[in-house]
Amino acid sequence: MDSTEEEKLIKGCINLDRESQNRLYKIYAAKMFAVCFQYSKNREEAEDTFHEGFMKVFQNISSFSKTGSFEGWIRKIMVNTALAKYRKNSHLSLLVRLDDYPESTNERYNDEILEKIEADALLQLIQKLPPAYKIVFNLYVFEGFQHKEIAEKVGISTGTSKSNLYEAKAILKKQITKNYHLVEATTIRYGRK
Amino acid sequence: MEENNNLEKRAKSAFDKFQMNPPLRSWDRLSSELDRHQEVVIKHKTDRTRIIMIAAMIFLTSMLSWKFLNTPAHIVSTDKVIESSANTYKSESGKPIDVKSKTKNHTQQVLNTLPGIETFASVTDNQKLNHSPDNYKVQHPDVTSPDEHTDLSNSNTSLFNSSGSTGMTNDLNPPIIVADKDHLAISGMSGITAYITESVDVPLTLNHQVSDYQLQPQPDVSSPFSIAAYFSPNYTWQTLKDNTDNNIDDVSMYNDREKAMFSFTAGINVLYSINKSWTIITGVSYTRIARSMLIPVIYANMNSANQMYFEYSTSNGVIEVPLDDSHNSLHPGDSILTESKAHQYLKTVNIPLLIRYSIKKSKSVFYAEGGITTNFLLQTKAKMRIDDYEPTVINNNNGLRKTSFGYLAGIGAEHQFKHNVNFFFGPVLRGSFTSITKNSAVNTYPYSIGINIGMIKHF
Fold it and tell me: In this structure, what is the dihedral angle of CA atoms A161, A163, A164, A170, given to the nearest 10 degrees?
């Protein structure tokens, strides 16, 4: 989609034109649902985040400054919606106890394994991370936030953010190594053996 | 480290173009909610239009009332014969007042000091005295004998022309009427001081140009200084701006979980009158802004002295709650669901610098004022309840600026309470130019509407 078309679409959405809204939805729905899923506990939560995020997109589209990428703007809304949900749905009296999780592993794993893992398999591994680790891992790796920004967004200290990222990577590496030894296949597809 | 980077790179590239199909009916769900939302938007727009119309009506009514009040309602129209004093009013030196070399105010002041003269009125060029001037005579300053009078109706310097309007007026020194129930003096012409030196025996009708208002005693203005004390109950809102571009969520989160509480400002102002209309104001005031908030989750953290504390973010900085020994099992990053309520108070000392424009009407003074304020953070206080733990945290709030700058605009009215002491009230808007937070997720600009109520003493 070129910039003129995008501008036209945005203008249509600002004017509450349902056809423009539907077109915009169709263009970005699949990408954004993946983002929501990445930040959610399960598919149901991802659906709620996706719905809430798109409502925010349509309600706030006039505030899009046009200085950056439109897709990036939508993605940011989706991520923030997921973060807000994360903060809101922290139902445990003691949500994250850092020493509940295993120490980082020194076990080495082969980079070739990484190359062989498909996106959905990796996604499933990330999904299995403890919520506090997953949020930090996603924000750091996929959104490119620094620890200070993550700390502010999630409401943790910078040190905790660093620690959570370290632990997340350690768990992922361990899982990858473990599954690699269990599944002797050129392509590892978790849940689709 | 390298293998860590590889993991990050691989994860990033794997997800670069990763897509997942959303639920089949998600667009239908969105569409129906958008329909509902658009109805709400239309309702809000209607509400807004209604509010604007009501505001316009209030404004219009106020303007009409103002105009009505401005029109002299109590016209002095009397058949009473006003006799002049047999004595001319003289200045202290015993000579007639030459207004050519004196300002109008000075003339008024001097006339005010004369015995028996307690009231005065000024008449501008376009004002008329609706009576025949034939029987009025004036004393020319060059004429030393009070017996030599100039008949106004025949003089080139006549005060009244044949149509009864003032003639020979000077823009700088419009005629002044000085009157009480027994006396009348007219002054204010260039080079001439018009005194009533003879008894007049004609009915004098003062038409709308000389109203009750104009005959009211004028407060003494011997000193340009006044002092005012006031109290203002406020309702405070705040504008939040996210520090990250296009991030609307932190703003909505704080807006959802925080609410304004009763706030107030109290202070003392010193006023300096530059002239009849303009006044400069400064002083000192104390403001307390209060907010209530819901704290869903708090996080444990450790400070540089290895002491644990709870922290929670608000739109007005991050509050740090010191922990007692019962919480020593916590680790940094632990989070606790509290669902608790907290009250946060910001106390500031404010130094205003304002300019005021006033209009005097009868016993009342109406004014509009505006200017800037410098606000110094005095104290932060947070009261909360975390399970059975009820700490009050004082001055342990990070992310707030020590100094911020704001604006103030208001209108009001003063009404004479007793001699030189007026009661005043009026709505006032206070706001911030600069954010009160620093290095926070959001920039916070509080603003409030209050009612200033107070007393002012004119010296």
Answer: 150
Tell me whether A92 touches chain B (CB under 8 Å). Answer: yes
Q: What is the ipTM of this complex?
A: 0.73
Name chain B contacts of A149, Cβ cutoff 8 Å: 244
Strand positions, DSSP E, chain A: none
Dihedral sign, CA of B222, B223, B224, B225?
A: negative
Residues of A in contact with B31 (CB under 8 A): 18, 21-22
Structure confidence by residue, pLDDT tens digits, A28-56: 999 999 899 888 888 888 888 999 999 98
The 10 Å Cβ neighbour count of residue B105 is 12
**Cα A30-A34-A36 angle, rounded to 5 deg:** 115
Residues in chain A: 193
Q: What is the pLDDT of residue B425?
A: 92
Average pLDDT over every residue of A62-73: 82
Q: Is the pLDDT of residue B194 over 80?
A: no
pLDDT digits (tens, 9 = 90+) for B134-151: 333 333 333 333 343 333
The secondary structure of residue B172, as a DSSP letter, is S
CA pair distance B277, A73, nearest whole angstrom: 53
Give the model's confidence band at B152: pLDDT under 50 very low, under 70 low, under 90 confident, else very high: very low
User: Do residues B365 and B359 make contact, with C-beta atoms less than 8 angstroms apart?
Assistant: yes
Q: Can you list the pairs that A59-65 forms with residues at least 24 positions away whose Cβ atoms lie under 8 Å? A: A59/B37, A60/B248, A61/A10, A61/A13, A61/A14, A62/A14, A63/B246, A63/B248, A64/A10, A64/B246, A65/B245, A65/B246
B295 close to B342: Cβ distance less than 8 angstroms: yes
Question: pLDDT per residue over B106-134, tens digit each?
Answer: 434 444 443 333 333 333 333 333 333 33
Rounded to whole angstroms, how far apart are CA atoms B25 and B33? 13
CB contacts, 8 Å: A51 with chain B: 26, 29-30, 33
The most distant pair of C-alpha atoms in chain B lies apart, rounded to whole Å, by 117
Interface test with A, best of B20, B28, B330 (most A CBs within 10 A): B20
Distances (CA, A) of B200 to B136, B146, B284, B325: 7, 16, 56, 97
How far apart are the C-alpha atoms of B309 and B320, rounded to whole Å? 6
Selection from B171, B108, B95 nearest residue B140 by Cα: B95
d(CA A81, CA B312): 19
| Contact (CB, 8 A) for B194 and B89 | no
Rounded CA-CA distance B447/B433 in Å is 10
Q: In what order do the strands lie in the sheet with B184-187?
A: B120-122, B176-179, B184-187
